[in-house]
Automatic annotation (TrEMBL):
Transmembrane segments: none annotated. It comes from Comamonas antarctica. It comes from the Bacteria. Residues 1-22 form the signal peptide. This is Tripartite tricarboxylate transporter substrate binding protein BugD. It holds the Pfam family TctC.
């Protein structure tokens, strides 16, 4: 009986401690770290920094630090958060890579489904199909004809294995049933630079990376990957790939927020509430719209909806990656 009483006392003390921790979260002077599994300056990094600026207002003006832990298609950063103390002070902001690493990398130290608390989807970022400035095709129909005439000679750039452009390229080839030669780069910037310099032929990448180049006509643009045309001034006249002829081709890059498994429910609730308030911040909305991103506004804002969505994305992209045999290990 004494042993049982002692165990019960320990359990109650642990619950009480968790309650105090959650009530005081975030503690004054203790920073929150958001791990971004990509290099600084990229689109996911920009989303994280803009979100942090807005979220901190709703988290007692806490300092929020961005930790860029890049590598292995975001697997390095994901693993870092999976191992972190589950107290709410280490979070993960990742894009579609959260749904692709389970198939791309067959040896992982973490389980996407079981090792994280899901905190909500932040946004959706459309993709654009663009080409080098000297490419002879001026529209999507002519582009497909050109690819057909140059089988085996068309280069398709991407920002590295597991990047959004890599995934979009796989989906493009699968839908077109046309193979192209992948040319991986260490990031979007060098890929776009070589595209503008006519060193590679095509690139399918996020509007966050391509809008400025499309607007300045430094590349040729063939379409966006959304069901409807975008309203962004620089892209509003660009047709969707679906209306241009590539039926049912829809690819968006989404970003979500995560905490290590076991983070107290009261803490994850606070973080989710701060995130949802940040998504209504006019300044954050303005910054996202400039990048061509669409703020999430559906059941994916909830932890339950977020996790269900990621599970469906794992199934979708798993088929694409397996069909292409595009494993990273």
């Amino acid at each position: 009986m004494q042993k049982l009483f002692k165990l019960a006392s320990i359990a109650l003390a642990a619950v009480a401690a968790t309650g105090v921790q959650a009530q005081d979260f975030p503690a004054a002077g203790k920073p929150i770290t958001i791990v971004v599994p990509f290099t600084a300056g990229g689109p996911t990094d920009r989303v994280a920094r803009d979100l942090a600026d807005s979220m901190r207002k709703h988290l007692n003006n806490a300092t929020i630090v961005i930790d860029n832990s890049a590598g292995a298609g975001s697997a390095v950063g994901i693993a870092k958060v999976a191992r972190a103390n589950p107290d709410g002070y280490t979070l993960l902001l990742n894009h579609i890579g959260m749904a692709t690493v389970p198939t791309l990398y067959r040896k992982l130290s973490f389980n996407v489904a079981n090792d994280f608390e899901y905190l909500g989807i932040i946004n959706d970022v459309p993709m654009t199909l663009i080409g080098k400035p000297t490419l002879p095709a001026d529209n999507y129909k002519d582009l497909v004809a050109w690819i057909g005439k140059n089988k085996g000679q068309v280069n398709l750039a991407n920002a590295g294995v597991g990047s959004a452009s890599h995934l979009c390229g796989l989906m493009l080839q699968s839908t077109l049933k046309m193979e192209m030669t992948p040319v991986p780069y260490k990031g979007a910037a060098p890929a776009i630079a070589d595209l503008m310099g006519n060193q590679v032929d095509l690139l399918c990448d996020q509007t966050t990376n391509t809008t400025a180049q499309i607007e300045s006509k430094k590349v040729k643009a063939y379409g966006v990957t959304t069901p409807k045309r975008l309203t962004t001034p620089a892209l509003k006249n660009l047709p969707t790939l679906d209306e241009a002829g590539l039926k049912n081709f829809q690819v968006t890059v989404w970003h979500g927020l995560y905490a290590p498994k076991g983070t107290p429910a009261a803490v994850t609730k606070k973080v989710n509430e701060a995130m949802r308030l940040a998504l209504k911040d006019p300044e954050f909305i303005r910054k996202e719209e400039q990048l061509g991103a669409v703020i999430a506004n559906d059941d994916r804002l909830t932890p339950e909806g977020h996790k269900k969505f990621v599970q469906s994305e794992i199934a979708t992209w798993g088929k694409v990656i397996q069909a292409a045999g595009a494993y990273a290990d």
